């Protein structure tokens, strides 16, 4: 893909062997973090490994690799809670996890639209290729599911007004993002993808002030 040709591995700046050494170092550090947690969290963290291992292969198998990314990347919604509490409060953790999965489907589908022409040539799959011109309708549905899940998670852990204000602000941001998105302009897709940092910041602020 032309857009990523300058990345170290693709450009040949590092070898496959060096990349494996770096990966081994990252995994070793991650293992140290995991082993410092309680036993419940160690088991829970370990159960994510099948997703971690298989995700990179999914774009060769299914048009929904973004869903598998969401299931993998948002495991922290479960693990973060259990690391503090020693178990999961599923009435909170599952809606929060689902919200994260839906959010990943939103921003990574937008991201995938940057590469859809190259993906067709290469023969890999994505939700961008699956949804095509219906992308905005799908993104709207995922966003609504995300907001509903955030509200359920908030209600189940007694969140307060600042939290729901932040959820409303997130909804407004996503609505503007989707409405103004041009799926045929890679530079606009990147801009919209990157703007999801605002979603995270808004929600984080809402959680902090809601708890205070």
TrEMBL record:
<feature type="transmembrane region" description="Helical">
    <location>
        <begin position="90"/>
        <end position="107"/>
    </location>
</feature>
<keyword id="KW-0472">Membrane</keyword>
<dbReference type="InterPro" id="IPR006370">
    <property type="entry name" value="HB_polyprenyltransferase-like"/>
</dbReference>
<feature type="transmembrane region" description="Helical">
    <location>
        <begin position="193"/>
        <end position="210"/>
    </location>
</feature>
<keyword id="KW-0414">Isoprene biosynthesis</keyword>
<comment type="similarity">
    <text>Belongs to the UbiA prenyltransferase family.</text>
</comment>
<dbReference type="GO" id="GO:0004659">
    <property type="term" value="F:prenyltransferase activity"/>
</dbReference>
<dbReference type="InterPro" id="IPR000537">
    <property type="entry name" value="UbiA_prenyltransferase"/>
</dbReference>
<feature type="transmembrane region" description="Helical">
    <location>
        <begin position="16"/>
        <end position="40"/>
    </location>
</feature>
<protein>
    <submittedName>
        <fullName>COQ2 protein</fullName>
    </submittedName>
</protein>
<dbReference type="GO" id="GO:0008299">
    <property type="term" value="P:isoprenoid biosynthetic process"/>
</dbReference>
<dbReference type="InterPro" id="IPR039653">
    <property type="entry name" value="Prenyltransferase"/>
</dbReference>
<dbReference type="GO" id="GO:0006744">
    <property type="term" value="P:ubiquinone biosynthetic process"/>
</dbReference>
<keyword id="KW-1133">Transmembrane helix</keyword>
<dbReference type="GO" id="GO:0005743">
    <property type="term" value="C:mitochondrial inner membrane"/>
</dbReference>
<feature type="transmembrane region" description="Helical">
    <location>
        <begin position="138"/>
        <end position="155"/>
    </location>
</feature>
<dbReference type="InterPro" id="IPR044878">
    <property type="entry name" value="UbiA_sf"/>
</dbReference>
<feature type="transmembrane region" description="Helical">
    <location>
        <begin position="61"/>
        <end position="84"/>
    </location>
</feature>
<keyword id="KW-0808">Transferase</keyword>
<keyword id="KW-0812">Transmembrane</keyword>
<dbReference type="Pfam" id="PF01040">
    <property type="entry name" value="UbiA"/>
</dbReference>
